[in-house]
Specification:
Blueprint: H1 2-25, E1 28-30, H2 34-44, E2 49-51, E3 55-60, E4 65-71, E5 74-77, E6 80-92, H3 93-97, E7 105-110, E8 113-114, H4 115-125, H5 129-137, E9 138-150, E10 162-175, E11 178-190, E12 193-203, E13 206-218, E14 221-226, E15 235-236, H6 237-244, E16 255-256
Antiparallel strand pairs: 1-3, 2-5, 3-4, 4-6, 5-6, 6-7, 7-9, 8-9, 9-10, 10-11, 11-12, 12-13, 13-14, 15-16
Helix pairs in contact: 4-5
């Protein structure tokens, strides 16, 4: 009898250990949390509709939590839609067994998105004058981003959000005499610091390179610093007129470096 009990305990231990290892490495797929995640997001942003595929759940036994991940999700607001590469979150194991659910953190990875369409989508959720002006200025370009959001007990986004990503082949034309094209850079953004790296762009067909540009917000002010890695830039008479119009009308300048 003792041998049977002993063997049964060993078998149970091996089975349980194998199941934990399986959950920790491979996980299981389920749509159990699809409605909960969609409802939580709907509470915060009523105009948003989130479409999810099955969620892969992986056990993190050391932090006593479940890591959730879904591939190929999409967000829709009215007639606008953007495709996402993945959405990640995590919940405490206790809330899983108590059938409770509350988003505390969310990681969103986008696919390559047209910047103009992305801004138009954001304006449907939360519009302001800055976004309206930016949408008018941007002519083209693509955005890839990884967004980390943390929520408080009331479901509001905390100030410790973090966004990183890259801009490819963008073009901005704020006014007629300035045309910013071939814009490429990587960025890291949080609530107070905007960090841009490997900035390359063309200003009126003049190529410019900035290895780093750092913008820091201090209350209602911004401090900007960075590095310039450009060769001598020459401007001919037509370019000078284009840049400065009548500001130098008293002077006859044929070219400038």
């Amino acid at each position: 009898m003792k041998k049977i009990t002993y063997r049964s305990l060993i078998f149970l231990f091996i089975t349980l250990t194998g199941f934990i290892i399986y959950l920790s490495i491979i996980g299981i797929k389920t749509d159990k949390f699809n409605n909960q995640i969609s409802k939580e997001l709907k509470k915060k942003y009523p105009n948003l509709e989130l479409s999810l595929d099955k969620i892969n759940i992986v056990l993190d036994p050391f932090n006593f939590q479940l890591n959730l991940k879904t591939i190929g999700a999409s967000l829709k607001s009215k007639n606008k839609k953007i495709s996402l590469e993945s959405i990640k979150s995590n919940i405490h194991i206790r809330t899983f067994f108590n059938n409770e659910f509350s988003l505390t953190e969310l990681d969103i990875s986008t696919r390559s998105l047209e910047i103009k369409n992305f801004i138009s989508f954001i304006r449907m959720i939360q519009d302001n004058t800055q976004l309206f002006i930016l949408e008018k200025f941007i002519k083209k370009g693509y955005l890839i981003a990884n967004i980390n959001l943390k929520f408080d007990k009331n479901g509001k986004i905390n100030n410790d959000f973090f966004i990183k990503g890259s801009i490819k082949d963008a073009e901005i034309k704020p006014i007629k005499k300035f045309n910013f094209s071939k814009i490429n850079f990587n960025f890291n953004i949080d609530n107070k610091i905007y960090d841009f790296k490997d900035v390359k762009l063309s200003l009126n067909n003049t190529n410019l390179v900035f290895p780093t540009i750092n913008i820091k917000r201090e209350k209602n002010k911004f401090s900007i610093n960075g590095k310039n890695q450009n060769k001598n830039i020459s401007l001919n008479e037509n370019q000078i007129i284009q840049f400065f119009e009548n500001d130098f009308s008293l002077f006859k300048i044929n070219n400038s470096k």
